[in-house]
Amino acid sequence: KQEVTQIPAALSVPEGENLVLNCSFTDSAIYNLQWFRQDPGKGLTSLLLIQSSQREQTSGRLNASLDKSSGRSTLYIAASQPGDSATYLCAVNNQGGKLIFGQGTELSVKP
Amino acid sequence: GAVVSQHPSWVICKSGTSVKIECRSLDFQATTMFWYRQFPKQSLMLMATSNEGSKATYEQGVEKDKFLINHASLTLSTLTVTSAHPEDSSFYICSARDPDPEAFFGQGTRLTVV
């Protein structure tokens, strides 16, 4: 059974810092992995999707890497801003579009 | 990216009544839609998978007679919480995908049963 773990559960940093969020999964036979952002009481916004054959994806200040063999992904946020404050969720897709989510990392960026 | 609209965004209902939540894909045809549930401070748990024109597939532990899912068209799926009770209060989120592997999520519906 696929299990997804995210570390840390919460993170507070001053504005401008670069930071890394971690995601690990137990079954390496994944189809793809997605990182999402969730603001309090809101739905999910897709940030980056990495196919199983890819090693990383970049969008603006965000960079996500994938090491399928070790069951790990990281989300790197450069030059963090207060507007980046949210919960970040990692989800793996084994097949068919069903996503298994981690518990999330609650990020707070202080001005 | 593609847009998925969920309605209503929040609803309060009395215990014992039924509530319907709609999930629409606005600019693409969703061959598959998923319904998730999220309790406060917890992650999303998949409830069921629905394919257009066929019965939904429910995850283990989810009561299919309580959470009725209908996927009547390629752009609309509905989740009906029947005979709702306070323990059903939660945040319900749908997602939709076409053959593209990326999943797009609705805004979520906060259900409060009083």
Please tell me about this protein's structure:
The complex is a heterodimer of chains A (111) and B (114). With 111 residues, chain A is an all-beta fold. In chain A, 0% of the residues lie in helices and 58% in strands. Chain A has no helices and eleven strands. Chain A has strands at 4-7, 10-14, 19-25, 32-38, 44-51, 56-59, 62-67, 72-77, 86-93, 99-101, 105-110. In chain A, the strands form two sheets. In chain A, strands 2, 4, 5, 9, 10 and 11 form a six-stranded mixed sheet that branches. Chain A has a five-stranded antiparallel sheet with strand order 1-3-8-7-6, with no helix packed on it. The radius of gyration of chain A is 13 Å and the shape is globular. In chain A, 36% of the residues are buried. The model of chain A has no long low-confidence stretch (mean pLDDT 94). By secondary structure, chain B is mainly beta. Chain B contains no helices and eleven strands. In chain B, strands 2, 4, 5, 6, 9, 10 and 11 form a seven-stranded mixed sheet that branches. Chain B has a four-stranded antiparallel sheet with strand order 1-3-8-7, with no helix packed on it. Chain B is globular, with a radius of gyration of 13 Å. Chain B starts with a strand and ends with a strand.
